From TrEMBL:
Gene Ontology BP, a term: mitotic sister chromatid cohesion
Compartment(s) of residence: Nucleus, Nucleoplasm
GO CC field: nucleoplasm
Plastid keyword on record: no
Gene3D superfamilies per the UniProt record, alphabetical: Tetratricopeptide repeat domain
Organism per entry: Salmo salar (Atlantic salmon)
Name assigned to this protein: MAU2 chromatid cohesion factor homolog
Polar residues bias spans: 592-606
Assigned protein family: Belongs to the SCC4/mau-2 family.
Length: 606
């Protein structure tokens, strides 16, 4: 105990020093740090010291232990005491912020979200004279509403923040509020509101003169929204100028040094994402573009770069956004691998996504539909039609149609292709096709998905022997896919048109379709279209008496068949192949039993 003549600050500073020493030790000695902070209360400290110590204890327990109940108790005391002390903003609002964060962390265990909202609202109400905390708390409450899928309330709060920052003269943070609002409006598909808002943001960003890294990070945020907006609309050609600007912008950022000069306006003390996270995000949107456009080797190259960067970042940074980036990258590269004939690798990567989702309930909630969709696509590629149907049906069941309309249309399109291939599901098929009718009230604004819907109609007409109707649909697909450089759809449409002309006996016209289809499929590369094209070229050349060319095409067909067959056997022999029977509940991890061999039909590949 301190002697009565000793100043109270000395014992306090000593205990604080010890606590910090133990907290920053390697490894940290958290139990001793907590003991030192708890000892402060033995001295019956003044209110300010008592509130700050409760905050420090709450923070240490929250960040370094699993004792959330005790952390919560200390933070609630800090918040309660600090409200009675004038000019004590830093402790008061940090306690409110951390406490509501803790409530949200416990959302899955208890229904504490209703405790977090009024707490944040009160803190926002009393923080108007403290610009930094007022903005931070507005962002936090908007994020909470976003997690609850209440995007309207979140947008309202971001609008309040934008107006507040305009009044306090912070154009930088005003841009952050407006860009965040633009992101949510894009999620809600409120395109009429998005366009004027993004135009305003563009003007603010260009006119703002300040820290170069902050300015460039605003530009990255702005361009990422523009690029994803184009990609959502399936416009992979129109997006190219924006994507190029974004790539140049991230190169500029990587050459700039982080200046430690703090902004003079406290409302400017924010940044959107760390520089390293922005680099991964730019790789990610580049992969999304390459996959949609059918540049699959480029998609592979950028995925490898991004995943390598992510592995390095995850060693030092536990930010949940990194796992989200990783899952989205894997989702895209899995689709690429299924096209390029690497099904076994795709299946192992689907298993990897399962493991990542198993570690985070929120990640699984947001990606369950995509995971079932990927398994459906894998089932299609190995000809397990019943499992494909079950996976796509599961994906539709767990998808959130309000924010994933494009995903819904993508799943329905693929499910329609399953019914066409099964050949005996007419009623279900017509019900689906009515919902994705490209000629009438198509449900989403995506150029790419509408072109795919025409292709599905063409495929059905082909199987029904209605060749003129099939040609009309496929020419529509070709027109749309050529307009936006959708290479895979172009290749698929060309080879199917070639097949139709071959059946009709128009060999010259068939050849005019199949040769460019083969060239494009080789460039992508798309193994299934190459297999299909080589089979047609073999038959065409044979019919025209071109023996040498027919022999060459037959050899190509044999090579593609062998590659696909080997990959098919490898994939179906993996224990992860059992994932195709998972259609409900959390992702199965470590439950795979090795199979004796493939149990699926190979006939369609040969």
């Amino acid at each position: 105990m301190a002697t009565s003549g000793e100043a109270p600050e000395s014992w306090y500073l000593a205990l604080l020093g010890f606590a910090e020493h133990f907290r920053t030790s390697s490894p940290p000695k958290i139990r001793l740090c907590v003991h030192c902070l708890q000892a402060v209360f033995q001295f019956k400290p003044p209110q300010r010291v008592e509130a700050r110590t409760h905050l420090q204890l709450g923070s240490v327990l929250y960040h370094h232990t699993k004792n959330t109940e005790l952390a919560r108790s200390h933070l609630e005391k800090a918040w309660f005491i600090s409200q009675q002390i004038p000019q004590f903003e830093d402790v008061k609002f940090e306690a409110a912020s951390l406490l509501s964060e803790l409530y949200c962390q416990q959302l899955l265990l208890h229904n504490l979200v209703d405790s977090a909202k009024p707490l944040l609202r009160k803190a926002i109400q009393i923080s108007q004279q403290t610009p930094y905390w007022h903005c931070r708390l507005l962002f936090q409450l908007a994020q909470l509403h976003t997690l609850e899928k209440d995007l309207v309330s979140a947008c309202d709060l971001l609008g309040v923040g934008a107006e507040y920052t305009r009044v306090v003269g912070s154009e930088y943070t005003r841009a952050l509020f407006l860009l965040s609002k633009g992101m949510l409006l894009l999620m809600e598909r409120k395109l009429g509101e998005v366009h004027p808002l993004l135009t305003l943001c563009g003007t603010i960003v260009e006119n703002w003169q300040g820290n170069p890294i902050q300015k460039e990070s605003l530009r990255v945020f702005f361009l990422v929204l523009q690029v994803t907006h184009y990609l959502d609309a399936g416009q992979v050609k129109s997006v190219k100028p924006c994507l190029k600007q974004l790539q140049q912008c991230i190169q500029t950022i990587s050459t700039l040094h982080d200046d430690e000069i703090l902004p003079s306006n406290p409302a400017d003390l924010f940044h959107w994402l760390p520089k390293e996270h922005m680099c991964v995000l730019v790789y990610l949107v580049t992969v999304m573009h390459s996959m949609q456009a059918g540049y699959l080797e480029k998609a592979q190259k950028y995925t490898d770069k991004a995943l390598m960067q992510l592995e390095k970042l995850k060693m030092l940074d536990s930010s949940p956004i990194l796992s989200t980036f990783q899952v989205i990258l894997l989702e895209h590269i899995i689709m690429c691998r299924l096209v390029t004939g690497h099904k076994a690798t795709a299946l192992q990567e689907i298993s990897q996504v399962c493991q990542l989702c198993a570690q985070s309930p929120r990640l699984f909630t947001n990606h369950a539909s995509q995971l079932h969709t990927l398994l459906g696509l894998y089932c299609l590629s190995v000809n397990c039609m019943d499992n494909a149907e079950a996976q796509f049906t599961a994906a539709l069941r767990v998808s959130d149609l309000t924010t994933h309309q494009e995903l819904w249309a993508f799943i329905v399109t693929n499910l329609a292709s399953v019914y066409i291939r099964e050949g005996n599901r007419d009623q279900e098929l017509y019900n689906l096709l009515e919902r994705i009718n490209p000629d009438h009230n198509f449900p989403v604004s995506s150029h790419c998905l509408r072109a795919a819907a025409f292709y599905i109609r063409g495929l059905l007409s082909f199987f029904q022997g209605r060749y003129n109707e099939a040609k009309r649909f496929l020419r529509e697909t070709l027109k749309m896919s050529n307009a936006e450089d959708l290479n895979r759809l172009t290749a698929c449409s060309l080879v199917l048109l070639g097949h139709i002309f071959y059946v009709l006996g128009n060999h010259r016209e068939s050849n005019n379709m199949v040769v460019p289809a083969m060239q494009l499929a080789s460039k992508i590369p798309d193994m299934s279209v190459q297999l299909w094209s080589s089979a047609l070229l073999k038959d065409l050349n044979k019919a025209c008496g071109n023996t040498i060319d027919a022999h060459e095409a037959a050899q190509m067909h044999q090579n593609f068949s062998q590659q696909l067959l080997q990959d098919h056997i490898a994939a179906c022999s993996l224990p992860e192949h059992n994932l195709i029977s998972w259609t409900d509940g959390p992702p199965p991890v470590g439950q795979f039993q090795a199979q004796n061999g493939p149990s699926t039909s190979l006939a369609s590949l040969l």
